[in-house]
From TrEMBL:
Protein's organism: Cerina litoralis
Source species, domain of life: Bacteria
Family: Belongs to the ROK (NagC/XylR) family.
UniProt protein name: ROK family protein
Source organism phylogeny: Bacteria, Pseudomonadati, Bacteroidota, Flavobacteriia, Flavobacteriales
InterPro entries: ATPase_NBD, ROK
Length: 323
């Protein structure tokens, strides 16, 4: 029997799924060590897969194909990381095909993390009814990917649809890690929250000043009673609204699907975005659906697992043609 592994390498967590041609059998989360090299994280991944295989009584070399979701720009044809933006920089020199072959005897599919999550959502989640939609992932950064005319949008240089977090929403805004100013990611992401709180002119009057941990859950919890939290929450919602308007104008989608832990507050987020975007987007045919992901944080690892199966099937078809 063929077995497949999906791997989603994030900034804080690594998600790994093992399954057969029918379903995912087990999913395991381990801590990512972004302060270490990419190679150190690869060793963590290998060790975790070994443990999972032992638990499932599967031989290590029975894995037929691997899908790997990487948090930056990827050439999915050459199986190569082409840009990292200071995340796991040594991955650019990594030989993915040789690693998967020598370690597992397996094929490999490599893809950008947002595009992998988009694929997972398209095949198994909220994207199933649509031929055209934008996936927006809200987390440490802001990622995007696009399904257009029933196909993942890739582009000549493999970055089409992936840089929605680096669209400019304030040309004089905060400096982004990419070198631009006023990017969506620089203005409204988990990374931006600390700066938004510390530089708020009324921070000394806020409960946030004494909080050692600032995340979106804290901001949304305090927003009803704390003016600073409310203003930061609404600032982020307005930034995301502006981004979504840009996605609608750029890609003409049927839907925007949003994922990430922040969507635990979707009862506040979705109505706000729908009203704001509905009043600003130029879409004379009607309103674009704004939806929460069904797979949420598991979209990437699901997409990676499905991509692993696709890669195996592609090679099997080639073998049949050569007979």
């Amino acid at each position: 029997m063929a077995y497949f592994v999906g791997i989603d390498l994030g900034g804080t967590r690594i998600k790994i799924a093992l399954g057969d041609d029918k379903r995912i059998l087990i999913t395991r989360n381990v801590k990512a060590r972004k302060e270490l090299s990419f190679m150190s994280n690869i060793r963590i991944i290998e060790d975790t897969i070994k443990v999972i295989c032992e638990e499932q009584k599967i031989m290590f070399m029975d894995i037929s194909s691997i899908g790997f979701s990487f948090p930056s720009l990827v050439n999915n044809e050459l199986k190569k990381v082409i840009s990292t933006n200071d995340k796991f920089n040594d991955a650019k020199e990594f030989d993915w095909v040789e690693w998967s072959k020598s370690t597992f005897g397996a094929y490999i599919s490599l893809e950008n993390d947002a595009r992998m999550a988009c694929y997972g959502e398209w095949k198994s989640g909220a994207g199933r009814p649509f031929t055209d939609f934008v996936m927006m992932t809200l987390g440490t950064g802001v990622g995007t990917a696009v399904i257009m005319d029933g196909n993942p949008l890739v582009g000549k240089h493999f970055q089409a649809g992936n840089l929605g977090g680096h669209l400019t929403v304030d040309y004089a805004g905060a400096l982004c890690s990419c070198g631009n100013r006023g990017c969506v990611e620089a203005e409204a992401s988990s990374t931006a929250l600390k700066r938004l709180v510390e530089t708020h002119p009324k921070i000394l009057e806020s409960e946030l000043k004494n909080r050692s941990k600032i995340d979106f859950a804290t901001i949304f919890d305090l927003a009803e009673s704390d003016l600073v939290a409310l203003e930061i929450r609404d600032h982020c919602l307005d930034v995301w609204s502006a981004a979504i308007v840009n996605y609608i104008h750029a890609y003409d989608p049927e839907a925007i699907i949003i994922s990430g832990g922040i969507m635990n507050s979707k009862k506040i987020i979705l109505p706000y975005l729908r009203e704001k975007v509905g009043g600003l987007a130029w879409s004379p045919w009607g309103h674009v659906a704004i939806l929460s992901s069904e797979l949420n944080d598991n979209a990437g690892v699901n997409g990676a697992f499905l991509m692993a199966k696709n890669e195996f099937e592609k090679h099997e078809r080639k073998k049949i043609k050569l007979r």
